[in-house]
Design brief:
single chain, 405 residues, mainly alpha
Length: 405
């Protein structure tokens, strides 16, 4: 006989009570019933005086910024001596995103029932990757959880900053190109046909640029649905191919690294994340072979992920990290030299951290240079494009003025 099971429905309860010292305490907790809330609070030594059910807000999705803020808040409170469960409660109550508050409350409930902190985090791989969980586990075992959380928060903040800078450098030209395409489409579909009706009354031969623009406009008017439909379908299938095929992803990532200017930006951003991740993991006491599990994916580029897998295999067989990195062929001399010095001096995490600092600074410089360089280039390109269309359409009017004069 088949049986069906469903996940118990949970609610958000707001409670008020007194602790063992008689001080009034307030908070929120997720549970299925009010009885579970009372039992949970009694285990904490809270004498409950009031419990009220509150409807759970849906909230927006949890972003990397939310997780970074959560890690920083937890590190700060643990450093200040706030107990772990109370830290969870404070973060959950103060976070503006209800989805993040629910996640923090779930973590708190797991820890409260005796689950280790790292095991609680591992239940949510969507939000906490292997790197995060491994560092938390290392912090628990070494008794320096607040220090590891602080390192994690710093790592997350630096990684987010690098991604934001790369994204801002790539977003501006893409946005301008999209706007330019929209403007050109409007001109071709609505403006040029109006001029064409006027020119048909001239009874004179039109200049070659004007004829070219009119022919292009006629193509847009008659076949716009085919043009945009094919672009949309092609884009959809290209995205699906990239999403489902590792070979396509690798080809795209390799192509991005070969782009002029932008390729260098993407490469240095990937190197900064790679070195920063390995420095954080190794500095926390995670064994090198195990640390490399999390490093490849953090780079954000499949080329470096594949290289990291090969490096991990070679290091596991006794090859030095420097030699393994050199044989991969994707790391520049600076990273190899810093790694070699770190291995010889026993300060690998510090040298990799310095390499990450260097590449993060270079990313800053490239982004600033791109910002100052792209603006005039885009203005010139747009001016030539839009200006060329306008001049082509006004040439017959200028010629007519000369004839009349």
């Amino acid at each position: 006989m088949a049986t069906s099971s469903s996940t118990p429905k949970e609610f958000l309860f707001v409670w008020e009570g007194k602790d063992r010292q008689g001080k009034t305490q307030r908070g929120e907790i997720r549970a299925g019933t009010e009885a579970i809330v009372n039992a949970s609070l009694r285990r904490q030594g809270i004498l409950v005086t009031k419990v009220k059910k509150r409807k759970l807000a849906r909230g927006r999705s949890i972003k990397s910024k939310d997780l970074s803020t959560f890690t920083r808040q937890m590190a700060t409170m643990l450093r200040a001596g706030v107990p772990l469960l109370q830290s969870f409660e404070i973060v959950a109550r103060s976070h503006p995103n209800p989805s993040m508050s629910r996640l923090v409350n779930d973590l708190r409930n797991d820890v409260e029932t005796g689950t280790s902190l790292s095991a609680s985090f591992r239940k949510y791989p969507r939000y906490f990757d292997h790197l995060y969980c491994n560092l938390i586990e290392a912090g628990e075992e070494a008794g320096m959880l607040e220090l590891l959380l602080d390192r994690l928060a710093t790592y997350q903040e630096k990684t987010l900053a690098i991604r934001a800078k790369i994204k801002s450098a790539l977003t501006y030209p893409i946005a301008v190109m999209v706007v330019a395409m929209i403007v050109v489409t409007i001109i071709m579909l609505f403006v040029v046909p109006t001029f064409q009706d006027v020119f048909s009354q001239f009874g004179a031969a039109l200049p070659a640029p004007t004829l070219f623009v009119i022919a292009l406009s006629n193509f847009f008017v008659h076949y716009w649905y085919i043009l945009f439909g094919s672009m949309g379908i092609g884009g959809y299938f290209a995205f699906q191919s990239w999403k489902r095929s590792a070979k396509v992803q690798e080809a795209v990532d390799r192509g991005l690294l070969q782009l002029p200017v932008f390729g260098e930006l993407i490469r240095k951003g990937a190197l900064a994340r790679w070195t920063r991740t390995l420095a954080t993991m190794f500095g926390a006491g995670v064994p090198l072979v195990e640390a490399l599990d999390s490093v490849g994916g953090s780079s954000g580029n499949i080329v470096y992920r594949r290289a990291t897998e090969r490096i991990q295999q070679e290091v596991a067989t006794g090859t030095s990290l420097t030699m393994a990195m050199q044989s991969s062929g994707v790391f520049p001399p600076l990273v190899l030299q810093m790694t070699a010095i770190g291995e010889e001096s026993g300060s690998l995490d510090q040298m990799l951290g310095k390499a990450a600092d260097i590449y993060e600074a270079e990313v800053d410089e490239i982004v600033k240079a791109l910002s100052s360089l792209l603006e005039p280039i885009i203005i010139v390109v747009l001016g030539a494009l839009i200006g060329g269309l306008v001049v082509a359409m006004y040439l017959p009017i200028f010629n007519l003025g000369k004839v009349v004069g």
